[in-house]
Amino acid sequence: MVRSRQITAKLLFKTLKLFSVFFVSEMGRESRTQESEMTQFAIFLSRF
Fold it and tell me: Which residues contact 19 (CB under 8 A, 6 or more apart)?
């Protein structure tokens, strides 16, 4: 039980890390238009 929880936590952390990197890069690239940011965000979410 404990080991599987640790694995889940690690996977979650990696996903959050990747997501934050993606989100920051998208915000930096499309800082002017908020609509395209939300579109990119929706596309990113739909991949899961």
Answer: 44
Contact between 26 and 40 (Cβ < 8 Å):
yes
Spatial separation of the C-alpha atoms in residues 48 and 42, rounded to whole Å: 11
How many structural domains comprise the chain? 1
Rg (CA), the chain: 14
Range of the domain at 7: 2-46
Say what the pTM is: 0.45
pLDDT tens digits in sequence order for the chain, 48 residues long: 678 888 898 998 999 888 888 887 877 776 655 667 778 788 888 876
